[in-house]
Give the backbone structure.
Amino acid sequence: MFEIEKIKVQYLSKLNEPIDQNRLNEIKTELFGKNGILSKKFKELGSIPEENRKNYASELNLLKNELQELIIKKNEEIQNQEINKKLKDDNIDITLPGRSYFNGKIHPVSQVIDEVTSIFSEIGFSVEEGPDVESEYYNFSALNTPENHPARDMHDTFYLDYSKDLLLRTHTSPVQVRTMLKSKPPFKIIAPGRTYRHDSDQTHSPMFHQLEGLHIDKNINMGHLKGCLYYFVKKFFEVDKVKIRFRPSHFPFTEPSAEVDIGYKINDGKIKIGEGDNWLEILGCGMVHPNVLKNAKVNPNQYQGYAFGVGIDRLAMLKYGINDLRAFFDSDIRWLKFYGFDPLDIPTNYRGLSR
Amino acid sequence: MITSLSWLKNHLDTKANINQVAERLTEIGLEVERVNSSNTNLDSFIICKIVKSQKHPNADKLKLCDVDVGSGKIIKVVCGAENARDGLFTVYAPPGTVIPVNNMKLKIAKIRGIESHGMLCSGYELKQSSDKEGIIELSKKEKKIGEKYFQNSGEKTLDISITPNRPDCLGVRGLARDLASSGLGKLKKSSLIKLDQNFKSPIKVSIKKDKEQGCGIFGSIYIKDVKNKESPDWLKKRILSLGLKPISAIVDITNFIMFDLNRPLHAYDADKINKEIIVRNSSNGESFEALDNKKYTLQNNMCAITDKSGVLGLGGIIGGTSSGTEFSTKNIFLESAYFFPAHIRKTSKILNIDTDAKYRFERGIDPDSIKLGLELGARMIIDICGGKASKISIEGKIKDERKTINLETEKFFKIIGFSITTTEIKKILSSLGCSLKINGKKMKILPPTWRPDINEDIDLIEELARIKGYDKVPLINPEKESIKETLNNKQKVFHFAQRSVASKGYVETVTWSFTDSRIDNLFSELKKEIKLSNPISSDLDVLRSSLYTNLIIGAKKNIHRNYEDLMLFEIGPVFKGSKPGEQLTMIGAIKTGKQSRKNWIEKERNFDVYDIKNDALRVLNDVGVNSEKIFVSNKTKKWYHPGRSGLLSLGSSSGPELAYFGEIHPFIISKLDLKTDNVLGFEIILDNLPDSRKKIRETKPQYIISDYQKVVRDFAFVIDEKYSSGEIINLVKKINKELIKEVKIFDVYQGENIEAGKKSIAFNVILEPKDKTLSDNDIEEISKKIISKVQESTGAKLRS
């Protein structure tokens, strides 16, 4: 028994001295190695008299556990010390920049098309497209704008041939007719796309973007048109209340026709949409003219509905405070990075249209 | 259309003020664009004289003029007009002036390096004529340098935008009628016109029965012994309020009646007419000098008003100088006619003439107003200038095209969404001039002669809705149910691909669909370029056949501003023909410059072909093309570096072409002066992407989780240089598709220690067992297979 006590005292003191990992390993071997002191003692158990053996073994086990625990603890201590020692000198200048990367962006026009699509998707519209090059028929005649109609003056047109039969569409409205001709009513579609007018100055670009909307069913009246556009304007500008004015106007392909103005005010040089005493025209709309339905092989006695057209670039300018339309199409990397959107910024209903 | 409150009150009994009138006009579809206060802006335009004009030192088409603006002050103005010349009296607008035609405020501006203090104005810019060609040339009477060009009418005016369906509102009375109908006052009755008419007009009129004769009715009256003079003040004020300049009583009266009643008239100096008036089709080559001082040469079948000597004017469009009235005019022949709108439009388009008369006739003039116009015209002329009127002559007749329209009250509700009573319908439509026959709920309605736009019930419904007010239309909340999915497959791929490319670091640009043919041809395989017949400028003359054209033009602009490390892309149409539908949807992306530039942590590195190839592959993967199925080959297009470009196709080198990638041809880069030698790009042909009907979840097999370790083994061969890495990778993969997960090239070397014509290629093979841990024997076995396969197929030698 005395021997065990002696080992205990001896090794507790050895372990409590300041030691390094090597010394700790030596101690470990001295105690628990093949010929270690404690290993030997366990081997000798058989030679201990029967009456003392149990007691002796229990003492021996206690000592073994105590020393083992202490070694583990010591081991951890030493390792921590060593890491701490390393860390002490391991400093870098974390203000240095990392490796090069490039941030991509989505153009404001694309972003707004996605926003608008998301909004109309919520109320059951699907997306249709049409060609950029159109025939005179789809762009004008089918839309109740016969040759020599003065309304054609409002569309300065790019032509591709001298007989003026092929042209760049001046609006997205031809998609109405194409959509109706290839399927059967009801129709509930939007059609975003490029449009072209022979007009180029500081506020006009010869190419711009429009969004066409068309809803045809058996009982769609002007009240539905109003409801749809209120919904759209509120959602798009992300405001709870919005001041909107429907004003009678004229488009050959709708009757009655209306232009829609939204109220705005200027606060600290920034435009605030939806309130105020100024009016800003944002879109044209109306009930689809029976002649257009006829041209699209839809029976106007059974079906009726509304159509609207809105300028996408203009929406983008209003919502995101962009002044210069021409800059949209100028590929200036500084502008694109400034007004562009993160590709992960996908407009959705649940996450909010914009950040 | 411009009018003032006092003019409106000639026709309308109302207590409303100008703002109330403006608001109501807008509410009923006659949009008031501006209420102009008595136009102090117009006061800034000054009569001036060009003292000296010389060529602008930096521009061939511009002139630098010294302009006398009064009290000896000489100002420098840059002017582009051809007729700017020494000694010319014209109109000067100082900085700060708002130009009427476009509402732009003038600033002192440098034009091609020289400061221009203000501007010399054309009639078009002052909204006085359609003449854009040159600056105004003032006659002798106006040579009062430094004086105001416009005299002030002193009254606020309303500037109203009239839609093309409402010719009747191009006259003040039409506006008054609409206002009265909407309840803002009462339309005054027109007073009876009394004239003594004791003799027949000495000038015979005939309308020739030509094919497609443009004149339907030609009414006229002869007024003898007049004394033309300046208009009385009240008339001058009316004319000034229109933004026009008073000319003489006779001209002012015809203008007044045109704006008052929308009834264009034309006054001839009767003594200048050779015997008789013949309205006939012109023949090719006939010409005349018009009142805008231009000579027009006519084509066949234009509607000419002629006499025995030749063409006097173009019916309904413009009169000629040869028969124009002057202050000395003694006898007047006054014309009031009806010309067919389509005919007017066609002629004026061909000759490019825009006049107030043409604008009205092409929209449709009330054919019933001919007599009224002549009587009122004659009465006013006699009242102001004296003289005696002849009997009225009216030649020709047109068919009354008006139809009686059946209207059912329910239809109004069905289209507009709120209901209207028969009484209201009756009140509104009759106040607009319609005649109604009512039989219970059925109504028969005849529109007035001045409303050519009303032809069917929907036109009447619009009238009713507009007068009742669109604010009465109820707001019906949209239903949420959809008829079909928002996007079809192609559209989904478009949106996915767009954001996928951006997520690789590319900045999206949107550029015009037309471009410069000289650059586009470099990227085109079209036999014939797609030319615009009326391009906006000569460097935007074709529809683009490649997205590279505008991307390179854009990149060049940025590079020249020293933004040289660029990643740009566009997604959109390119054109393959000039017919609808001959277009493809593509992605074009370019990168130029360096991936990393002088940097403490990285070496400088140019973007290279392997960057662009990876970008293209990753986008294709993102949009759902299985990378296993993408085949890389060295097929290429003429605009790429022939040895540093390739094709990604589906399945095999002859499969559908998904994307081209590579270095842009050095030839193109040097030709375009890009200031870089490193431009890379890829083009994805979105229309060629496989249109998978199945969802990804449907095509994926069950995933089997493997507990077994993966094993990596390295190999190195010396091989004939003709073999591409792709071939070797495919060769190795085929040995055991289940087990060999990936083959990765980690070294390619040619040069010292390697025989000429050969290369060393080293790769590792990643083995992923599914059913057991690979034993040394298993690994040995597959390694042997790999070595022998590569050696047998290519004659390669294993490197030790």
